[in-house]
Design goal:
The protein has helices at residues 15-26, 68-74, 76-85; strands at residues 7-9, 33-35, 39-40, 43-44, 49-56, 65-66, 92-101, 121-126, 134-140, 163-167, 173-178, 181-184, 193-201. It has 202 residues and is of the alpha+beta class. The strands form 3 sheets. Strands 1, 2, 5, 6, 7, 8, 11 and 13 form an 8-stranded antiparallel beta sheet that branches. A 3-stranded antiparallel beta sheet has the order 10-9-12, with no helix packed on it.
Length: 202
């Protein structure tokens, strides 16, 4: 489904559900994979990030990797996405939790990118109140067939990007946008950390 601009839904989940997601993500037993260098302006940087993939299809022909406890925590969101946005939700492709720590000297945003090159949507759920907005750009890629199940972008990228909107992280806020649209995260400059759940779906 083509989305001309993002859909933003505040107070997306019941309060106790939102609190439980935040609690689970901040639990000392929650494991994070370390990304030692975040790409900015096409170059590796000194900024770091963390991620945790709860569910992902490696390609269209294989069984997905599913971390059942964590996927179960996020799975009810799929029903609420369709109910509250009117966008049909057929299947999850990936559920990834991302964490950026405070970087007072960080640039405006990280590298613009797309997650997959076939038609899909992105639902981005903010776990905590923070700064470090998501930047969404006007530029879109030309989709490839779903059967290719292609991740990421092809080079070259556009020489420049036109900002469509920025979305501030706010606990229990959900933003949905066209997965073919370039977007970029950013690190918080004022808050200790920023956590968001990225759900790619068709």
């Amino acid at each position: 489904m083509y989305l001309p601009e993002p859909i933003i839904i505040d107070d997306f989940l019941p309060r106790k559900y939102a609190d439980e997601i935040e609690k689970q993500c901040l639990d000392s037993r929650f494991t994070w994979s370390f990304n030692p260098s975040i790409e900015i302006d096409g170059q590796e940087s000194d900024q770091v990030g963390f991620s945790h993939v709860a569910m992902v299809y490696p390609n269209s022909d294989q069984q997905p990797y599913i971390e059942r406890d964590l996927t179960a925590l996020f799975y009810p969101l799929t029903y609420l996405i369709e109910d509250k946005s009117g966008i049909e939700f057929n299947a999850m492709i990936r559920v990834r939790v991302g964490l950026f720590t405070k970087e007072p000297s960080s640039p405006e945003h990280h590298k613009p990118h797309v997650d997959y090159r076939f038609e899909h949507n992105v639902a981005l759920y903010y776990v905590n109140d923070s700064d470090g907005p998501t930047h969404i750009f006007e530029e879109r890629i030309t989709p490839e067939p779903f059967e290719n199940f292609a991740e990421g972008i092809r080079s070259p990228q556009p020489d420049s990007f036109t900002l469509q909107t920025t979305i501030e992280p706010k606990k229990n806020r959900l933003v949905i946008f066209d997965g073919l649209q370039y977007h970029a995260s950013s690190s918080p400059k004022d808050h200790k950390y920023r956590i968001a759940v990225n759900i790619n779906f068709i």
